[in-house]
Specification:
Rossmann fold, six-stranded parallel sheet, 327 residues, 2 domains, 19% strand, elongated, alpha/beta
């Protein structure tokens, strides 16, 4: 049984602790997380971001708070979502899902640090002054996904060397698409193949693109890296399988969905690196002096079951180079 004096002492101690608890809650850093995708599109990427934070000692709900803003694949919503995070005075904003999201955050603030994830060249896109010294309030992680088109086309050519016309599907609204197209065109010239460039930014455009592939008797298809295409991967893979078109995709999610092959960066690793970058800023490093991290972890995946469905014999030399073979 607690006496009156002990109770008063206990109460006083609790009262003294309340301001400390309130102060700790107020000073807990808040991270803004802005993403073009919908919340449930690729949750593994968000998990990878949190894993990167945890590696550096920041655990959501324990010593850091994350404010999530998802645009549900509607680019028009990005500026308002970015402005909302700025109004909440977050400590740093992590931005992913394409250049449109990065540009929305960049337009919303010149003072809050921004850590981006991009598949393109951040210098060429105007995000930073240089990779080693960004120079402003933006830095981040690039996996240079638009620069793998030549390699991906070469792998596709090894599987279907008889394909004279090769389609390239790109989203014209994505700034990075221009680099993908130019690199693929150069590789096609080297291989002496005709590159048929197809544009798509809606589900209807994708159907139209496959109609063109059939009309032009294309023997293969290279799908450019794009958040929209990743969201529509089931539609794209289904159409390619239906039309019997061997296709190379930009990431493993397509191969796991039944796509023939994929070659590209491990995007989850890039998100993890972004979490580490955010942590470095929270610990006091200056965005202007924090070099852009270059994610260089690639993976080549072959879906052998789909190859059999398409009647393709995968060369042993190609199988030997695959990081993963889906049976």
């Amino acid at each position: 049984m607690i006496g009156r004096r002990d109770f008063i002492t206990l109460l006083g101690g609790a009262a003294a602790a309340w301001p400390l608890a309130a102060h700790a809650q107020q000073t807990m850093p808040v991270i803004g997380f802005l993403n073009t995708f919908a919340r449930d599109d690729r949750p593994s990427q968000t998990d990878a971001f949190r894993a990167g934070l945890a590696e550096a000692g920041y655990v959501e709900g324990r010593n850091v708070t994350i404010e999530y803003r998802f645009a549900d694949n509607e680019h028009a919503r990005l500026p308002a979502l970015a402005a909302d995070l700025v109004a909440r005075k977050v400590a740093v904003i992590n931005v992913a899902g394409g250049a449109a999201a990065v540009l929305a955050a960049k337009a919303a603030t010149t003072t809050i640090p921004i850590v981006f994830l991009t598949a393109g060249d951040p210098v060429r896109e105007g995000f930073v002054a240089s990779l080693n010294r960004p120079g402003g309030n933006l830095t981040g992680v690039s996996w240079f996904g638009t620069l793998v088109a030549a390699k991906a086309l070469g792998l596709l050519h090894e599987l279907v060397p008889g394909a004279v016309v090769v389609g390239l599907l790109v989203n014209p609204t994505l700034p990075e698409a221009a680099r993908t197209q130019s690199d693929a065109q150069e590789a096609a010239r080297t291989l002496r193949r005709e590159l048929l460039v197809l544009h798509a930014s809606t589900a209807g455009d994708i159907h139209a693109a496959f109609a063109t592939l059939r009309q032009r008797h294309a023997g293969a298809l290279l799908v450019g890296g794009d958040p929209f295409f990743t969201i529509r991967r089931q539609q794209i893979v289904t159409l390619a399988t239906r039309d019997g078109i061997p296709a190379m995709y930009p990431n493993r999610a397509f191969a796991a969905e039944g796509g023939l092959m994929s070659y590209g960066n491990v995007v989850g690793d890039a998100y993890r690196r972004a979490g580490l970058h955010v942590a470095r800023i929270l610990k006091g490093e200056k965005t202007s002096e924090l070099p852009v991290d270059q994610a260089v972890k690639f993976e080549f995946v072959i879906n052998l079951a789909t190859a059999k469905t398409l009647g393709l014999e995968v060369p042993p030399t190609l199988l030997a180079r695959a990081d993963e073979v889906i049976e």
